[in-house]
């Protein structure tokens, strides 16, 4: 299904930040649930053919979501989202990092602070995602990683990798 | 690579320099004529671009010619395209999920 809903995408180099904004044709309660409940997240978070599989979810300040991106060959890449602040149905912030299956963070990769904001108007909900890196080098690292497996996975584009 | 591509292309003058030398390689003097700033300022911009491999130089006799090295740019574009597609795919899946959620009465 091709969506005609608004999507904005920008890289704010001044602030080492990537921004994605998108409208969804649903009230904020549903959209918020889809972003914060693991059984729903598992249904959409990984771009096909990858699948997200939750190991644990504790959606509270100080809690975290530990999940694997599972590839078509069964390969797993683990990530952890640690919730920093939560304003129900309005906003949550979280630290996003690569890790192992026990949730031990891999410090070789840049971590990012995510700020996700939800606003409803006339039954349409706009979600704004800001992905904040500490420094430009981290953003740069993400680019350089673009050709390595870890990040290619994160971009849900394994085919290119296998063609190499 | 010392320089940072994001910072390099964040500056409008530097983007203009890239556009110019992408069309044809140029000497520092020829390049400076296109800008109101001093030659030193243009040289500084070129250094920033060279530091992140966006610009390379070529000696022709006694003259230096700068030319555009699009490899880095391609990397950047590639990444952006992939990144954007990743989110678009993700969101279209969320659209589908929301349609199902919308048809279910419970808000939880």
TrEMBL record, chain A:
Which is one Pfam family of this protein? AHSA1
Q: Which domain of life is it from?
A: Bacteria
Q: Which residues form a coiled coil?
A: none
Residues of the Activator of Hsp90 ATPase homologue 1/2-like C-terminal domain:
26-162
Cited InterPro entries: ASHA1/2-like_C, START-like_dom_sf
Q: Name the family the entry cites.
A: Belongs to the AHA1 family.
Q: Spell out the protein name for this chain.
A: Activator of Hsp90 ATPase 1 family protein
Origin species:
Dyadobacter fermentans (strain ATCC 700827 / DSM 18053 / CIP 107007 / KCTC 52180 / NS114)
Q: Which taxonomic lineage is given here?
A: Bacteria, Pseudomonadati, Bacteroidota, Cytophagia, Cytophagales
TrEMBL record, chain B:
Q: Which GO molecular function annotation, any one, does this entry have?
A: DNA-binding transcription factor activity
What's the domain of life for this entry?
Bacteria
Residue ranges constituting the HTH arsR-type domain according to the UniProt record: 1-88
Q: Which InterPro entries match?
A: ArsR-like_HTH, HTH_ArsR_DNA-bd_dom, WH-like_DNA-bd_sf, WH_DNA-bd_sf
Q: Which Pfam families match?
A: HTH_20
Report the NCBIfam families cross-referenced here: HTH_metalloreg
Q: What is this protein called?
A: Transcriptional regulator, ArsR family
